[in-house]
Design the sequence.
């Protein structure tokens, strides 16, 4: 039985460590990215994946009882609540930002780039068929 | 759980305390983001992140103190934090719309100048909508 306890410690500790590392990546992303709509992407990762990993690790520690069930409920609730709050925040940002286009300028260039890439690909394909 | 050996108890206790300390440090970094964030949405995102980390802290604390009811508090905290984000974003949108309307009534010419400048930057469907709504 002693072995089982040690295995539980190692598995739970690894999961909890994964959760902490994901929180760390989230923090890095929030400080690295430049705009709210990009930062939201990093923040949502911690809301779902980070807390799921941490709470699954804590579930392994606590064993089979009501505490585990409640932690599961927290994770499931956050899976539903986090996209809704992200959507509301994105709408808030889009509604209240008067010069949103300054942050989204690259989309036109990206579309042009994509068009150009498709054209090149078609050229290559036709060239390959001819050869 | 009661037949756990003393060594395991000590390891668990130290690990919980280490996790709590790491989470507390990350919480302070989040607070820096919330203070520095240039826009309102930045601050709300940072506060939301802080809420998530506090939830993990409460769950760890409930296992450290062996008090099951702290997990209930964690569940309530999740619900209240979600409600806070929804309410704050809705209220801020309302306040912004009201302020924009007052500004439009006060300076109709200034607003026209703004719309002209926006129209010069490029043509987007959103801008057309906003120009129609303002006129």
Sequence:
């Amino acid at each position: 039985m002693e072995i089982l306890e040690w295995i539980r410690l190692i598995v739970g500790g690894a999961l909890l460590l994964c959760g902490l590392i994901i929180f760390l990546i989230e923090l890095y992303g929030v400080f690295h990215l430049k705009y709210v709509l990009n930062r939201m992407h990093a923040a949502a990762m911690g809301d779902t994946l980070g807390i799921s990993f941490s709470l699954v690790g804590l579930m392994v520690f606590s064993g089979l009882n009501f505490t585990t069930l409640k932690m599961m409920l927290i994770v499931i609730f956050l899976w539903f609540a986090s996209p809704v709050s992200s959507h509301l925040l994105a709408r808030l940002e889009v509604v209240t930002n008067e010069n949103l286009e300054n942050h989204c300028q690259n989309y036109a260039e990206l579309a042009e780039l994509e068009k150009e890439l498709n054209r090149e690909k078609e050229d290559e394909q036709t060239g390959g068929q001819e050869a | 759980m009661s037949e756990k050996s003393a060594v395991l108890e000590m390891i668990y206790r130290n690990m919980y305390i280490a996790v709590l300390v790491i989470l507390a440090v990350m919480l302070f970094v989040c607070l820096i983001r919330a203070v520095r964030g240039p826009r309102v949405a930045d601050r709300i995102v940072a506060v939301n992140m802080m809420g998530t980390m506090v939830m993990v802290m409460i769950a760890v604390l409930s296992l450290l103190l062996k008090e099951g009811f702290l997990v209930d508090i964690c569940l309530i905290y999740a619900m209240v934090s979600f409600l806070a984000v929804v309410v704050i974003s809705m209220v801020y949108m309302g306040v912004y719309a009201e302020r924009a309307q007052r500004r439009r009534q006060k300076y109709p010419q200034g607003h026209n100048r703004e719309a002209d400048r926006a129209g010069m930057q490029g043509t987007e469907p959103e801008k057309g909508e906003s120009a129609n709504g303002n006129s």
User: Anything to note?
Assistant: Residues 6-101 of chain B form one domain. The two ends of chain B are 70 Å apart (CA to CA). Chain B touches chain A through 56 residues (CB under 8 Å). Confidence is low (pLDDT under 50) at residues 120-135 of chain B.
